[in-house]
Structures are given as C-alpha cells and as structure tokens.
Amino acid sequence: MRHSPTPPCPEPEDCLVRRSLGHPVRLVPLGFLVAIAIGTGLLMLPWATGEQRYTPLVTALFTATSAVSVTGLTVTDTPNYWNGFGLAMITVLTQLGGLGILTGAALVGLTVSRQLGLRNRLLVQAETVEYGIGDVRRLLLRIAGTVFACEALMTLVVTGRLWLVYDYPPGRALWSGGFHSVQAFNNGGFTLYSDGLLAFSRDPWVSLPLALGGIIGGLGFPALFEAVRHWRRPVRWAVATKLTIWGSLALLVGGFTMLLLAEWTNPRTIGTYDAPGKLLATFTQMALSRTGGFDLINVEWLSEESYPLLIALMFIGGGSASTAGGIKVSTFFLLAFCIWAELRGEPDVTVGRRRVAEASQRQALTVALLSVALVVAGTVGLVLITEGVRFNESLFEVTSAFSTTGLSVGLTQRLPEPGQYLLTALMYIGRVGPLTLGSAIALNTRRRLYRYPKEQPIVG
Questions:
Q1: Predicted pLDDT of residue 113
Q2: How far apart are the first and last CA of the chain?
Q3: Which value, in Å, is the radius of gyration of the alpha carbons in the chain?
Q4: Residues 6+ apart with CB under 8 A from 260
C-alpha cells in the first residue's frame, strides 16, 4: 500500500518548521513540570522555612506550583512560614513562570553563547505565539528588556516610598519593593504581609505602580509590542491586538464601575474610606482581579454582588502569551463577536473590517467550553471532598486556581490534602493548558481534499 507523498512546502525553511514545531509545543508542559519538581524539592528543605524544619510534600508542591503558574494561592502564611531562602525561591519560580520556562532557558542560552539555534528559536515561538521563523533573537531580547525594565522601574518607585515615607531600612525597602514588583508584573499574588497589601490600598505610590505593572504584564507581549509600534494608528492593529487592548480596557472600566457601586457603602471593605481612597482602592483591586492575586480590598468581606463579578473577570483573564491566565480576553470577545454576528444573521464574523477565520472561531469555542468543563468539574469535586464548604466558595477558589489569579475567600488554607492536590492540578492546567491547547490546535490544522455533504441540525 503506497502512502500519498507529503505536499511540498513553498520554502525549505517551512518544511523544517513543519517537521519541528510539534516538539516545542509538547515541551511546554514538560518544562513547567520540571520547574515545579525542582521548586518542590528546594522548598521541602529545612533551610527554606523559618522554623528550620522539613516542609510536607503537599505544602511544597502546592507553593511551587502556585509560584511557577504565577497564581499566588497559598496554604501557609507566606511571610511567617518561609524564610529568606524560601521567599527567594518563590521569587525565582514566579519570574521563570511569568517569563516562560522555555523562553527563560533560551534567554540563558543566548546570554551564555551569544547565539540562538533553531531548536531554541522554535521553543521561544511555542511560548510567545509565533509560528514563523523570524528574528526570534530580537523578539527574545525585547521580551527580556520589557520585563526587567518594568520590574526595575516599579521596584525603584515602591522602594523609595517604603524607605522615605514608611521608614523601612534601605535593605528591607529594596527587598519588599523588588519582591512585590516581580509578583505584580508576573501576575503572581505572593506578598510579604499576612493581610496582603491592605495597608497600602490608599497609597498611590505603592498600589498604582503594582497595578499598572500587572496591567502591562497581563496584556501579552504580542499585543503590547504591536500597540506600542503603531500607537498613533490603532486602525493598523491586528485583530488579536484590537480584541486584547480594547477588550482589556472595557473590562477594566466596566469592572471598576460595578465593583465601586457594589462596595461603596460596605464598611468591611471600602465603605469607611473617603472618596479618593474608594476610587484608588477599587481601581487597583480591579486592575489585579483578572490577573494578579493581591488583596487591596478584603476579598473575604466583599458584598454578595461582587463575587459573581470577580469570578467572571478571573475566568476571562488577560491577554494571550502574557503572564495572566484565564481563557484570555481575545477568546472571550471573539466569542462575543460570533454571537453578535449570529444574532444579526451575518454570514461572516468581522472585527474592525477584518473577517475572522472559521478556524479561529472554532479554537475560541473549544478553549472556552473545555475551560468551563474544567471549572465545573473542579468545583463539584472540591465540594465533594471538602466537608462543610459552600458551592460559591468552591467556585471562587477553583476559578482563581484555574485562571492563575490567586484571589481567595480564605478556603484554600482550610482545605484537606485532597483539595490541595486538586487545586494544584488546576493551577498547572490553567497555566499550560490554554497555551498548549491553542498552540496544538493552530499547528495541527490541516486541509482535506474532500468535504462531506452539509446538513443543518436543529439548534435550540
């Protein structure tokens, strides 16, 4: 039996890419697993804790997964349980998880050898939503430069504020400013304070830089770079960039307005603040609610109207190829445009005078429905294995874990070990799942030489 030959490639490099691209996509989840395993081993060591004792496996695994997946959920009191070594490991794992395991490895290789081989170029493309052999070296340097420049600027502002106003010693101010800057830009939620950042919710010199860093990190490098390159002519932005930038702005403004109205008179959150304090605390909390897990408002005491809002925003998440999780802003708004086109009876889905490919519509629907299924299954599972937990608490924690946000209503630290393992799996899936699934679907697209007869089943 003879097999039909592989269709020729228009360019030799395209053939090489076609044969090689499957492997980098498979290496993405493996890279994160290796980082989690190494982090777990280091955090289990006695010199990683304040009491100089061995950390249980489930605690170390949960913390390492939370750091690598840039989530920020914890089962311990972070500043009191971990010592300087443990906190430094959490910082390194968060930075690696936000930058991308394979991207970070390629960056180290580039720094050491001054060269970037084809395999490393393919690895970077697997994590940065780039599917062509372009100037990946320049892309990699731009990513690293953006990350470290933003984190350095945030560190400078926050460190100066802590040193000059809060009378922190210079070393402690630098450590706190650097730690929270890394967490904010990478959309992690670990803090050096047991009550989160509630003490700084009305201080714009601390909360605003961290919030802006979280916004920038949550946009994603492809959208960010294109928006900066064509900032004078947004009409030239690609559809994905338009969906990400304008969609993120709409979610931020809409979420801010609804959260402000819901919490304006709540004395347990912002009800006792003056008007400027309410506006600042609500804005910074909303800026980090879709991506980062900092508490600038006491989440456990939010009004009942605020929980569905935060759950929805966490589930949507940030931009593609960003440090944020969720199903991604572009996925959510692409589905919204699909619904709008269907309601109007339009034959095509159009965004900004561009027709969206049917393959992209199917990919968005697949990612969204699989994510809904995972969140529902995780919520039901957590209710079944945890005694006395309410459904809305379980839904909030599961969504926070899957979307790698890190906000918590206090349930995570009360979970039994099976519940902690469940959230650990959801954090890992939430970090690598949408990225790997989206890349695999895009790279696995193939053209058939035939089509079956069409039939229109009844819907609804």
A1: 43
A2: 46
A3: 22
A4: 278, 279, 282
Given a contact cutoff of 8 angstroms between Cβ atoms, the answer to whether 290 and 405 are in contact is yes
Pick from 304, 329, 294, 277: nearest CA to 407: 294
Q: Give the bridge partners for 82, in sequence order.
A: 49
For 405, other C-beta atoms within 10 Å of its C-beta total: 34
Q: 313: which 2 tokens?
A: 């925003």
Q: How far apart are CA 327 and CA 131, in angstroms?
A: 20
pLDDT score at 20: 42
Length of the chain: 460
Q: Kindly give the interhelix angle for 136-164 and 170-185, rounded to the nearest 10 degrees.
A: 140
3-state secondary structure of 424: helix
Report residues of the chain scoring pLDDT below 70: 1-27, 101-137, 434-448
> Which residues are within 8 A (CB) of 169 and not within 5 positions of it... i.e. 6 or more apart?
163
Q: Give the residue from 426, 414, 418, 431 showing the smallest Cα distance to 76.
A: 414
55 secondary structure, DSSP code: P
For the four alpha carbons of 64, 70, 73 and 79, in that order, the dihedral sign comes to positive
